[in-house]
Amino acid sequence: MYTKLIKIAIDAMGGDDIPDVPVNGIRTFLSLYPEQNVFFVVFGDEVTLKRKMLGIDKSRYEIKHCDKFITSDEQVAFAVRHSKDTSMRAVIEAVKSEYCDASVSGGNTGALMALSKIILRPAKNIDRPAICAMMPTKKGKCVLLDMGANIAVTSQNLLEFAFMGEAFAQVVLKKKNPKIGLLNIGSEDNKGHAYIHEASDKIKESHLKDQFIGYIEPNQIYEGEIDVIVTDGFTGNIVIKSAEGLGKLVKVLLKNAFSSSILSIMGYIFSYLGIKNAMQIMDPNNYNGGMFIGLNGVSVKSHGGADKYGFANAIHTAVSIVAKEMNKKIMEKLDLS
Amino acid sequence: MYTKLIKIAIDAMGGDDIPDVPVNGIRTFLSLYPEQNVFFVVFGDEVTLKRKMLGIDKSRYEIKHCDKFITSDEQVAFAVRHSKDTSMRAVIEAVKSEYCDASVSGGNTGALMALSKIILRPAKNIDRPAICAMMPTKKGKCVLLDMGANIAVTSQNLLEFAFMGEAFAQVVLKKKNPKIGLLNIGSEDNKGHAYIHEASDKIKESHLKDQFIGYIEPNQIYEGEIDVIVTDGFTGNIVIKSAEGLGKLVKVLLKNAFSSSILSIMGYIFSYLGIKNAMQIMDPNNYNGGMFIGLNGVSVKSHGGADKYGFANAIHTAVSIVAKEMNKKIMEKLDLS
C-alpha cells in the first residue's frame, strides 16, 4: 500500500460525454478504491463543475477553472496553436510543474500527444512517444503499442516502439527478456507494407534480436506467447476497437444464450461466478487507460467513448503508474538503451 | 434445393497443411452436406492425392495431376510468372473454361488475386477486385471488404469496394439499400489516413451518397447497424484475424469458467444448447471462405490456417454462390452501375 498522497490532474473537458464521464469517473474511482490516498485537481468550467461534483467529498478534490477546451474534431496543429487556457494543456502543465503526479484526459488523441511531447519532452533517442495498451491473453496480459498516437509511421518509429515496449514489459509485466512481435497480416516475408519489412530488419540488428520473434498476426495476440506487440497507431487502434466491439457482442450472445430457456437461466445462476470472471477479462472498461510512453511525465489517455467505469479505470492506471514509479523506471531503461 | 450438379475445383496444394486440410475439408463437406449435388475436381500431386483421398466415395471426385504449386511465401510477381502447371492456376483455368463452376484455394492470397484477375478478368469499371468476408453482428451479418487482397489502396479503390459491397449486400444479404460505412479510427474528419478522407468525399459524390453513413470505428461493426464495411486489405485482414483470435480466447475463458466448480459444470449442462449457439456465431470456421468480388467467375479464398471444418465451410460458400447464382447477379449490378 502506497501512503504518499498522489495528485491526479483530470481534464474534465476531454471525451464524448463531458464533464459527466470524467466527474462520474472520479466518483466511481473513489467508491471503488476508497482507501487510495488520491487527490484530484479537476480542470474545466468552474461553475459547471461545482454543480456536477456535488456529493463528492470536498477534501478529495479542487477545481481549477479553464476558459476553453480542445474538441475532438480539431486538427492537431490548430489545437496546439490555440491550446492556451485549455483544460487539456492545463493538465499536462500541472504534471510538468510537478503540481500533479499524473494527468488523465479522454480528449483529442493527436492534440494530447502533441502537447504532451511539447511540454513534457520525450526520452533521449525517442522521436515519437506512443500509447501503450494492455491486452488480455490466454495466459495473462501483453502490451500493444502504438494504440493510436502515431497514425503514419516509419520503420524507425516502429523500432523505437519496440524499445519502449521492452522497457514497459520489463517494468509493468515483470518480464526480464520480453518477447517482441511485429504485427503483420502474415508470417511470410512478402506480406504487408514495406515499412514493416524495414522495421523487421532494424529490430533484427538491434539489441532486441534474440527477443524478436518476427511477424505475428492479430490472432496470435490472444495466445499469450508474445509480451510486446509492435504496430502503427492506426492498426493498433483498429485492434483495440475490434476487441471492444467483439467483447460487447459476446456479452449480448451470452445474455441471449442464458435467457433462452428456464434451464439455461438455472445454468447461468450455477455458473455465475465463473462467467462473471470471464466477462471481466473481456470487458474493455478494464483495459481503458493508455499510458503515454517515452515521456518525462505521466500522461494517461482514456478512450473518448469510455463510460464512468472506464474513466475510473484510467484513473486507476495513472495511480498505479505513479505508486509503482513505473514511468521513472521505464525512462531509466530507455536512457540506458 | 438446387438439383443441377455443381463442380468445384479444389486447390489441394494451397494453405498451411497440404494436402490434408483440403482433402479432409472435402471429406467433412460430404459428411455435413451429403444431399448436396456436388462433384470435386481436385488439383495436386496425383500419387499423394490417391492415397490421401482413400475412403471418399469415388463417384464424388476426380484428381487432376499438377506438377507444381505456389508457396505462400512467394512474391506475387514471381509466382504469376512461374504459375504454369501449378494447382492454383489450374483451378482458376478450370473455372474460366467452365469445366468447373467455382474454385476454392487456401493458397497465397496475392498470387490467387493476381491469377484470378488475369484469367477471369474483372468487371467493367473495376480496377481491383476484392475479397468479401461475412462478419457476425448483434443483428445478423454484415459484409467487410477488402479482407486481404489489396494491401495498399487508393481512394478510387475504396470507392470501387463500396460499389462492390453494395452489390454483394443486395444479392447476398437481401438488403435493397444497404448502409455503407468507411472503416476509420474515429468519426471525426481529422482522423486516419488522407486516402480515407478522399474516399469519403468520392463516396459522397457517388450514387451511394444516401446510403453512406460516413466513418465507422471497428467496434461498430458488431452492432449490426451497417451492412457494408469498406476498408483496405491490410486493415480488413487485421480485423478478421483479431476476431478469430478473440473468438478463441472467449472459448478458453468460458471453458475455464464452466469447469471452475461442480456447480458451474452443472450450469454448463443446463445452458449447453444456448452456449453452443453463441459459440457457433463466434466460431471463425463458420465465416471461412472469402468470395472474390468483381470477377467474371467464382473464386473462393479459404484462410491458409483453416482446419478441415473451415475448409468445408469455404466449399459450402462456393457451392452457395453457384447455387444462388450470386456472382452472376452481382456482376449484372456492377455492369449497370
Explain this structure.
- The structure is a homodimer of 337-residue chains.
- In chain A, α2 (46-52) links the parallel β2 and β3.
- The longest helix of chain A has 26 residues, at 233-258.
- Chain A folds into two domains: 1-122 and 294-324, Isopropylmalate Dehydrogenase (3-Layer(aba) Sandwich), CATH 3.40.718; 127-292, Isopropylmalate Dehydrogenase, CATH 3.40.718.
- In chain A, α6 (155-171) crosses α7 and α6 packs across α12 (326-336).
- The first copy, chain A, has an eleven-stranded mixed sheet with strand order 3-2-1-4-11-10-5-6-9-7-8, sandwiched between helices.
- The two termini of chain A are 31 Å apart.
- The first copy, chain A, is globular.
- The first copy, chain A, is 46% helix and 17% strand.
- Chain A has twelve helices and eleven strands.
- The first copy, chain A, is an alpha/beta fold and 337 residues long.
Task: Give a quick summary of the entry.
The first copy, chain A, is an alpha/beta fold. Chain A contains twelve helices and eleven strands.
